[in-house]
Amino acid sequence: MGGQKFQYDESGGTFFYFLLSFLALLLLPGTYYWWPRKRKQETVIKECQCDNCKKKRLLLQSNEPWKGAKQLVTKLFIISGWVILIFLAYKVSQFDYEYANFDPYEILGVPLGSSQAEIRKSYRKLSLILHPDKETGNEKAFMKLTKAYQALTDDEARRNWEKYGNPDGPGAMSFGIALPSWIVEKENSVWVLGLYALVFMVALPTVVGMWWYRSIRYTGDQVLLSTTEMYYHYFHKTPSMALKRVIMILAASLEFEKRHNGEIVERPTDNEEVPHLIKQIPNLSEKNRERPLCFMYSIKARALLHAHLHRIPLNPETLDKDRQYIVKKCPYLIQEMVNCVSHLILLGYARRVQHFIHIETIENCMKLCPLIVQGMWEYKSPLLQLPHITEDNLKYFSSKKRHIKSIQQVAQLKHEERRHMLRNLSDEQYEDVMKVIGKMPYVDFQVRSEVIDDENPTVYTAGAIVTVTVTLIRNNMNVLFGDESVTDKHEQQDVPSLTKGEEEEEDVKKETLARKPVWQKQQKKSKKGGKKSAKNQKSVVKAIASKKNDDKRGDDKKSDDKKTEDKMSNATEVSKATLFVLSSYIRDRFLSVEDDDTEWEKFQARLTKREKVLEGKSKRSHSVHCPLYPEDKQEYWWVYVSDRKSRTLLTSPYHVTALVEQEEVQLKFTAPRWPGVYTFTVCLRSDSYLGFDQMHDLKLDVKEAPEVPTEHPQWDMSDDEEEVPEGGGSDVSEFTTDEDVEDE
């Protein structure tokens, strides 16, 4: 057996393996992520034919003029990669076939078992064709032909071929590098070293440095850290911030300054157009001397935001382009504002900040987002979000009988009343209005509260962790249309009539379902209590039987047939009562198993939620009808718990970004430290539409917490570690009870 060899690839066969694996490693994920896909058509924008939606469609097309060409080039590039991959796979398969299938009979073109004369004749014939000295010669094929001839004529070569599959005998084990040999040749060393230095010493450190420089300047939501610091400063400085003040802080974001953002365009015409625009806007506070609120970029951004909310027409070549860029950035910046205010409020609870931030501040930040998306002020009617509806059309929605203020009320009207109110619109315009209303969200807002991992989940003690589970079920608003929803009548007509026996069975089922919560309440009873309840039920059965016997004795004047019927009815009722007793006993006996199943389902649900959190949040839900917003906007929501009486925030607002059909959110907060009845509010706010916010009251009867046993020394607490309530040690809760409100 030969020795081991270490060599470069001379023939290029193993280099094909390297190229094949490397190209496949790039093409498989690259095709998945970069192959152009057609997004689901945004029906709200596509179907609406109002003037603003038409302008927005043209704007979106002009923003991506080379979109089709880019997609075509990307497709051609990916397809070319796959063609090369298939070619390399074919070359590798041929290479493997040549080395793994050495058949001398096939090479010489003679059948198996041919004589020596036939083998020599075929060899002479093929050698005249494949000899390197001939015009049709092929050195590689001639060497292969010679090796095949030797394998069939030479005894030793034949034995080697039969034993090792090679007439030369066992080959030497070789270790090679899957790179061609020209890479290490002396004349090419300068180019190889230059390429190595360019890639690993210049390009790679540059890319890593740029990524690191960008990552240290931005937060996780791609907001400048300097902007976040400014938000913290001003919100801490102004605990109760009005809406116009929030707009001033938003306009001062450093994303709108040229030094921090290279995408900002500063034009010489701004010196004329911006002052002219400022004169058209009242109460802009352009003379404010706070830094950076007094900087020119901040005043310009503030003026453009006010112009957007007032719907003031701007120069489409200059200021309107700046307005589009600023408005496009606002939802991300407002979400960062909400996060900052939320952190400050929670820090205020921990007594780590000087000022206590009011809940109105964070709600004004949330309120600003739909105002900017829809391009209107808060005092305007929500009906202006609909296409073709202007200030002049609002008078048709007010009458002596009806006073329509919301879009939901419009959806619930009958077709005749709705068409009469919109009589100034044409049929095409009316269809646009109905299409947009039909695609708007109608959210079923469900709230339940409990104390997880506690013996009594519905009993709230002082200081317990309360978990509020909010379930959001999103439907289109066309379910509210008063004239199209006639399916209930048809369903009632299609239901077949029941016989008397079937009706009794249905009644029994309904009674069973109605009693189920009662059985669930009895599941915590002890065995002794269960026996007592069984005895009580037996006594009830005896009482029922004795009562029926008394009725039977007092009914002597009735006929024998009537007595027989009474006996049968008495027996039936007694049997029903007995069955009820037995069913109750069975449920009490095996209810612990049902509790275990319920707990296991809850545990599985928690694991599923954690897996979804680890996978990351989706950013796709439903498109918003917002013709004044320069990009496609998705429906997002905020959910949080607050105390409206004490104007405090109990939980950080949860940003729901993937409400396609149904979403479940868990909010946790600590129950008040003092017993009493408290009413909190679970709020749902939209970041895209006005008039779609919802509130759900949550009433908690907080009981006194059980005393902590002091017999264990490790549980002893010193006087210094005891919590001191706010207000110099007086027993005052941070929340307001319902009794306090009644006293006031």
From TrEMBL:
GO CC entries: Sec62/Sec63 complex
Any one GO molecular function term: RNA binding
UniProt xrefs under SUPFAM superfamilies: Chaperone J-domain (SSF46565), E set domains (SSF81296), Sec63 N-terminal domain-like (SSF158702)
Name the UniProt record assigns to this protein: J domain-containing protein
Chain spans, region Disordered: 484-570, 703-744
Signal peptide: none
GO terms classed as biological process: post-translational protein targeting to endoplasmic reticulum membrane; SRP-dependent cotranslational protein targeting to membrane
Bias-annotated ranges (Basic and acidic residues): 547-568, 703-714
Localization, UniProt: Endoplasmic reticulum membrane
Keyword terms, alphabetized: Chaperone, Endoplasmic reticulum, Membrane, Protein transport, Transmembrane, Transmembrane helix, Transport
Ranges of biased composition (kind: Basic residues): 522-535
Cited InterPro entries: C2_domain_sf, DnaJ_domain, Ig_E-set, J_dom_sf, Sec63-dom
Residue intervals of the J domain: 103-165
Record-linked PROSITE patterns: DNAJ_2
Origin species: Coptotermes formosanus (Formosan subterranean termite)
Membrane spanning residue stretches: 15-35, 72-90, 190-213
Bilayer topology: Multi-pass membrane protein
Top-level taxon of the source organism: Eukaryota
